[in-house]
Structure formats: structure tokens, C-alpha cells
UniProtKB/TrEMBL annotation:
Organism of provenance: Halosimplex aquaticum
Subcellular location field: Cell membrane
SUPFAM superfamilies: Multidrug resistance efflux transporter EmrE
Membrane topology type: Multi-pass membrane protein
Residues making up the signal peptide according to the UniProt record: none
Record keywords: Cell membrane, Membrane, Transmembrane, Transmembrane helix, Transport
Protein name: DMT family transporter
Length: 106
């Protein structure tokens, strides 16, 4: 259950990171409010997950989900550059997340 909560927390991290762009520097009220709500949900779910998961692993996975998802959506939604090097480095983040998941119980 904790891994599930952590995954959902990571999705909300992506939501608030993308929300920052739509809020235009926190100047637009509705996107700013939605961003704040997503931040709160993300952190609360992370806090619930670390009740049973190692905090270092959970935090790294949470930020990794956010980083990978935000980078991908940045390309799709905001025309951010997509190069082989960027894909490779995002792939390294994914490898790190998988490695942390595989070794979390050790």
C-alpha cells in the first residue's frame, strides 16, 4: 500500500510542477490554487508512505517520478527540447528509481 501511495504522490508532484508553469509565476489564481492543492496532496501522501518505507528511498523515488514525468510533459506541453542526451539522462533517473525499489528491503 505504501508503494501505491508513493506512486500517487509522485503523480501529484508532476501535477504541481506543471501547475507552476500554468500559474505564470503564481500570478493566476486558479492555476495557483490547483498547484497548491497538488503540492499538499503530494506531500501528505509522501508522509503516509514514509511511515513504512525508508525515507531516503521514498524521497528519491518520489522526486524521480516527478522529474521523469515533468521532463516528459515539458516536451509534450511546452515544446521543451528533446535530444538523445536528455532521453539518456532521464533514463538514468529511471534506472536509479528501479534500483532503489529493488534494494529497498535490504
Amino acid at each position: 500500500m505504501s508503494w501505491y501511495l508513493l506512486g500517487i504522490a509522485g503523480l501529484f508532484e508532476i501535477a504541481w510542477a506543471i501547475g507552476l508553469e500554468y500559474s505564470e509565476g503564481l500570478t493566476r489564481p486558479v492555476p495557483t490554487a490547483a498547484t497548491g492543492v497538488a503540492m499538499l496532496i503530494s506531500v501528505v501522501l509522501l508522509a503516509k508512505a514514509v511511515e513504512t518505507l525508508p525515507v531516503g528511498t521514498a524521497y528519491a523515488v518520489w522526486t524521480g517520478i516527478g522529474a521523469v514525468g515533468t521532463a516528459a510533459l515539458g516536451v509534450v506541453l511546452f515544446d521543451e527540447p528533446l535530444s538523445p542526451a536528455r532521453v539518456a539522462f532521464v533514463g538514468l533517473v529511471v534506472v536509479g528509481i528501479v534500483g532503489l525499489n529493488l534494494t529497498a528491503g535490504q
